[in-house]
Amino acid sequence: MSAARKHTALPKAQTLIEALPWLTRHHGKTVVIKFGGNAMIDEELKAAFAQDVVFLRHAGLKPVVVHGGGPQISAQLDKQGLVSEFKAGLRVTTPEAMDVVRMVLAGQVQRELVGLLNQHGPLAVGMTGEDAHTITATQHRPTIDGESVDIGRVGEITAIDTGAIQALLDDGRIPVVSSIARSADDHHVYNVNADTAAAALAAALNAETLMVLTDVEGLYEDWPNSDDVISRLTASQLEKLLPELSSGMVPKMQGCLHAVRNGVETARVIDGRVQHSILLEIFTDEGIGTMVVPDAPIDVHGVPEQGES
């Protein structure tokens, strides 16, 4: 009986041992995780996400969570009879809509996520980009058909102050950041794309890794003709692909590009529909999803890397 028990437990030990080099490599490093898509709506995926983030923290990493809340915002706007209009893939955000955005992100999505994380201990602290002037923005005016268009309270990030987030990390906490920003003069609050905010924070925090949860397996090589996922590509390779990408992937991949061009060692797009995808990506040899690396990746010993997963 005892021999059989020992035998069935062996794969667990092998799994833990496989994680050892990755645990060593990532220990003490900051990782910024963009939380979104199905992982944000499905109850089981939400719970698994919270477990993963707490696991990272207990494994010696310093996770920072950044979230948006598109579906929840749309639902609340509908409930209040406010029309959602999109231009150039961005939600036109009137002052009335901005009040709803703020309420949903900071009062609903963030609170729920903080609650899920804190089921595992007093770790998570919620904040928005407004707090301590963490994210400063100016009005974003996209160019559509050659003309600059006013889409309301949509922000373009102009500055990041990491002081409050760093203080929380130094205290062993998990910051949960809503993608809202203030103007430099404090007169306006802006809705900022959460992919963009996560990338800007990852660069400013000198994070080792940016992870973006999506509703696809990663970046496809030849969609829709094939569902083969590109497992790894350099910043320059990604830049060439950007014009061909679907609109939903553009801010995610632009964020990855910004991160690795500004000091972040790797940026990864992973499938948030897979339970524990974060742990699979960080702690296994195979990895999942698509990893973006700088054009000339150098490891900690100054030697060019040899095809990391």
UniProtKB/TrEMBL annotation:
Domain Aspartate/glutamate/uridylate kinase: 29-271
One Pfam family cited in the UniProt record for this chain: AA_kinase
Biological pathway: Amino-acid biosynthesis; L-arginine biosynthesis; N(2)-acetyl-L-ornithine from L-glutamate: step 2/4
Residues carrying the site annotation Transition state stabilizer: 34, 252
Keyword Transferase: yes
Group of enzyme by EC: transferase
Main localisation: cytoplasm
EC number: 2.7.2.8
HAMAP family in the record: ArgB
Protein function: Catalyzes the ATP-dependent phosphorylation of N-acetyl-L-glutamate.
This protein's name: Acetylglutamate kinase
Organism: Streptomyces globisporus
Lineage: Bacteria, Bacillati, Actinomycetota, Actinomycetes, Kitasatosporales
